[in-house]
Amino acid sequence: MRLMKGTDLALRIVMRLAVVGERESAPTTREVADAVSVPYSHAAKVVTRLQRLGVVEARRGRSGGLALTAAGRAASLGRLVRELEGVGDVVGCEDDPPCPLRTACRLRAALRSAQDAFYAALDPLTIEDLVAEPAGPVLLGLPLRSRSG
């Protein structure tokens, strides 16, 4: 199973926001996009999605920027990935046209079991867990350009 690019990007953005210090100004979407090496347009779409999920807060204006919400900090990684990936089977047995093996196939159940185990492994982890040593210092090393330069 491979995460969609949007989910991967969302997790990287959330992790970078989780290590922003209290004395730092809140980074803009462009600054975070540059820090995690993705195009601004992709980051903007992901930030909008994270706002709708209540994970990120975006403030406009001169002293605006992005911040991780308290709910975002404490969010279960499994829940967040489920929300970002969407609910569904790993394989498309019911797609158009439906798979002719779907009534007798055991693959779908085996893949569903594997998917459930994947999410169960992520459920106890939070964003805070992801930015603990050794990841935190590396994330802090991803530079956020200052607004003046």
TrEMBL record:
Pfam families, sorted: Rrf2
Tagged with keyword RNA-binding: no
Sample GO molecular function, one term: DNA binding
SUPFAM superfamilies recorded: Winged helix' DNA-binding domain
GO cellular component: cytosol
Cofactor: [2Fe-2S] cluster
UniProt keywords, alphabetically: DNA-binding
The keyword Secreted is annotated on this UniProt entry: no
InterPro entries the UniProt entry points to: Tscrpt_reg_Rrf2, WH-like_DNA-bd_sf, WH_DNA-bd_sf
UniProt name for this protein: Rrf2 family protein, putative transcriptional regulator
Organism encoding this protein: Saccharomonospora viridis (strain ATCC 15386 / DSM 43017 / JCM 3036 / CCUG 5913 / NBRC 12207 / NCIMB 9602 / P101)
Lineage: Bacteria, Bacillati, Actinomycetota, Actinomycetes, Pseudonocardiales
